[in-house]
Amino acid sequence: MSEGILLAKVARGTLLPEPERVARLREALPQIEAALAGETDQVALQATLACLLWEALPQANWCGFYRRVGERLLAVGPYQGGMGCLRIPFEKGVCGACARTGLTQLVPDVHAFPGHIACDGATRSELVIPVTVDGQLVAVLDLDSPHLDGFSETEARILEGLLAGSFCSTAAR
Ligand code: SME
Description:
Layout: H1 18-36, H2 42-56, E1 62-70, E2 73-81, E3 87-89, H3 93-101, E4 105-107, E5 125-133, E6 136-145, H4 153-166
Antiparallel strand pairs: 1-2, 1-6, 2-3, 4-5, 5-6
Bound molecules: methionine sulfoxide.
């Protein structure tokens, strides 16, 4: 087993100040990219990202993927955290909104988001980012936090960049 990534230990559930969270994510980024280099298998990529982002984002209580398994249906993929819902239609929840629109959903207070799916009643904020390959939605990255405002715009942009670089077209490899 590899050592994973090297980051300062932070207790699960800790919401660091935003600049510290961004610095931690930026420190993790090259290590995550190195761990994924050359990998093209979708499950290997998703499982490793779920594992390493869990380390990089201590404010998260859930970190993982929902995969597109139908025209308008997501099913749970590799994740860390408590048990998630198994299937999410595009019409439901924050993940569904992301899949439907193809746009990142940054939700500082899930109670203010109509139709939010409460898999874990402790969740207060959420960040969901689309994963596309060759312009097609293949999955979404779902991050939940028990803190209000647990994720920032800067974290969202960094993670969008990481996903864009990690899930390239297989044809381009
Ligand atoms: N809260 C999500 C559902 C997925 S779980 O929380 C893991 C949503 O509304 O899409």
